[in-house]
Structures are given as C-alpha cells and as structure tokens.
Design goal:
Blueprint: H1 13-49, H2 52-71, H3 76-81, H4 88-119, H5 125-132, H6 134-139, H7 146-151, H8 156-180, H9 184-204, H10 217-247, H11 250-285, H12 289-316, H13 318-325, H14 334-347, H15 353-359, H16 364-388, H17 390-416, H18 420-426, H19 428-441, H20 445-448, H21 453-478, H22 488-502
Amino acid sequence: MTATDPVPPGATPAANVTTRTAGGVIWLIATRFAGRIFDLVTLVVMARVLVPRDFGLVALAMTAVYVVEAVLELPLNAALVRLPRIDQRHLDTAFTLSILRGLLVASCLAAVAYPYARIYGDPRLFPLIAALALAPASRGVASPALARWSQRGSFRPDFMMDVGGKLFASVIAITMAVTTRSYWALALGTISAPLIAALISYVVAPYRPRIGLSEWRDFAGFAGWTSAAQVLSALNWQADRLILGRLVPVATVGRYAMASDLSSLPEQALLKPMMRPIMSGMVAVRDDQERLRRAYRRVDRMIVTLLVPIALGLALLAEPLLRIGLGEQWRSTAPLLSIFALTLIPGNLGAALGSTAMALDRTRIMYRRTWQEAVVRIPLLLGGVFAFGMPGLLAGRFVAAIWTGSVAMRLIREMTGFGIAAQLRSIARPLLAGGIATAVTLPLLPWLSTLSGIGLIAAAGAVGALVVTVYVAVLLVALRWGEDTGLPEHLALEMLISIARRGRPGANPA
C-alpha cells in the first residue's frame, strides 16, 4: 500500500498506518531473523571450538569499536528518508559524509588502540582493534540509494545485503575457527559481513559514487542532536563491559558478553527491524495528534505482545539452551542469560520512541532520553559492581532497565499525549499472560536440570511450547474484553492483507 492508497473500508486511520508499514516490518524482520540465524549458527560452532577467554578478548576490543562508532554516528539513511524528494546531490552528499565518517572512525580507533591495550593490560588488543576498525569503515561505503527503497516502504534490498553478508561471513569465520582455533576468526567474521553487504548494496541499489557536499544543510541539523545523544549513549550502554574488563578475568568478560549478546538477539532480530517502517508510518499521521496517539498505541502493544513470550522463554530455558547449543563449558552463564533476558521487557517499554521522535522532527528528545538514562544507569552499575561485585552489577542492570522504560514512557507522553497510565493499561494483557505462563512453567525447571542428551532437547522443546501455549491461551481469553482492533490477531490479518497487496503486478519499486 502506498501513501496515496485509500483507507480500507471500515479501517481506522491508525489501522491504516499499521497496514501500510506491515509489509516493511515483515521484510525487515525476515532480514534480521535470517541474519541472526547465521549469527547463531556461527556462534554455536565457535563456542564449541573456542574458549570463553577468546570471546572476552574480542568483546573488550569490540567495546572500543562500539563506543567510537556510536560517538561518531550519523543517521544519514534516516535523514534521506525524511526528505520529500531525494535527488542525485542528496545522494552524493550522504555518500561523502559517510566516507568521511568512516575514515574518522577508523582513524580514532587506530589512535586509541594502543592506550586501550595498555589500560586493560593485554597487548593483543592493539592489533585487534586496529583490524576491527575496518568494519565501520566498510559500512560507510554502502550505496546511499538504498534510502529510495526505504522511502517507498520496501526493504527487500536490506534482506539481500544482510543475508548475503552474514552468509559469506559465517562461512569465512567458521572455516578459520575450525582450522586455526584462534580468536581472530571472530574478528574476521565481524569485518567481512559489512564489507560484503556494502558490495551487494551497489547491485540492489545502483549508484555511481561521487564526492560532493552541496546539500550538507539537509543533514547538519538532523545529525547534530542525535550525534550529541550518541556520545552519552555509547558510554551508557558499554559501561558494564568497560568496568568488568578492569575487575574480572577475561574469561568472565567472555561469559558476560556471551549472555548479553544472546539476550539481545530477540531485540536485534525482532524490534530493530520494525523501527524504520514504523517511522515511515508515523510520518503519515504526525499532523494529527489523535491519529498519532492511536497509531503509537497499536505499535507499542504489538511490540510488547511479541517480545514478552520470547524474553520469558529465553529466561526460563537459559540453562538447557546453553547446554544444548554451546556445551557444558557455558553452563555457568545461565544465570546471566536469564537476568539479561528479563531486562528486555522493562527496557523496551516505549521502544518506538526513537521512530516517533524522528517522524515528528523532535530529535532533541533522544538527547534528553540518553542523558536521563545515563545519569541513573552508570552510577547504578558502578555502585553495584564496586559494592557487591557481579551480583551488584546484575541488580544495577535490571533496575536500570526499569528506569530506561519509564524515561521512554514519559517522553512518549510529552510527544503524543498518550499518558503513562494509558500506556500501561494498553500492555497489561500481554504482561498478565506472561506472568501466568511463567507461573505454570517454573515448577518444571528443576526437572530439566536433571536431563541430558535427546531427553533434554525434547523436554526443553516441550516446556518452551508450554510457555507459548499458555501465553496465547490467556491472550485469547482476554480478547473477550477487548475494546478495539489493536490486538495481535488483527495485526496479523493486516500484515497478510499487506503481503497480498504487495504481490500485485507493479506494486513494488523498480
């Protein structure tokens, strides 16, 4: 459905927004899901070939990369998508800015690599960080013409890029891990994926690279506040690894990083892909406060409804999943994974805040969000780890997740008029269903710890199915008291309608 398509008979304007963005959401979820499947396969193989200290070393190196890359982040694709018309000069400017940003990131990482290695007392970090600088530099050379597809609400090029890059990177990384048993296999996979994806981008979105900054004003104001927010955000979200690297053995950092990365898979595969099409949908209703509020309410409930059973299933089945997937050497990581999975729920309340702020051209909101989160989260982590060690750090991370969700909800209220109490009522049903599913499943967990082999796999699958079954059953019972059409089964129907519409001849961009 395009921006000019009429509203389906009987559909509300907010429902039309959901239908319009559903196709894009499906493509991006498919993209991230397929990419994360390759990531997971690669991770499982490497976790059985390498040891936790290898993962810890690369995690420390990647922390430096994440911080520098985030500090110098330029949301050029989002800036292009928001333009009423994208011409060649805009693409040239975006390409040039992206190249400059990639060179700056690589230069900064090369500069900090040696002192960073000295601080953490491991000389291997110096060449590792210098090599990993190639990853953000590779992302900087992707075709800016991808924004034209995003503007039309079509994200098939993203699927081809991400899947192609991850496929080749997985083959390369696994081959090196099996043959060398070196931590450099992890680094090589990280570097090769964005490089291959960038090459594919010119096939799916042709563009002749040109250097020019004639339209820099269209990017300067948009990037200014978001870049300021990224400085705090980088420190905020990497603070725990920066702290741990100085206090605990590198193997412990590896287990912590493994649990954190595994717990983030649902967010990366499910939530992140939704944000771009959600932003496009919010742009369509941003001039009508009531339509905007209803659209946000539906999006927020959809996100929570999808996230709750995944997060709870991962938290409840952390130990058997680690034993089955990664082996017994990772069994002690289970408590970390359970806690991190649970933080997904409060931490993602108001998850569509960024998309809504960009759609309303209120990117300063993101700066406010970041510093409000940071002034609480960083002291919580520091105080927790120095007072109580690892348990204090975990408790601080959980409390910080609750604070993060509350900050987002307050800012959503400010932008849309959708009150906090109304936001909580909107997601009460999936939270209730998740609580009941957890209560039913908890008594079975001690039994799982006594099993192994095929019996463990079968039992873990059965318990996971039970979580989902109870959750869906409670939601279906709750439908009897539903007052609108913003519930998952209606959203699923809208997505199917969107797929059918996109299947018409000429419906997709050339």
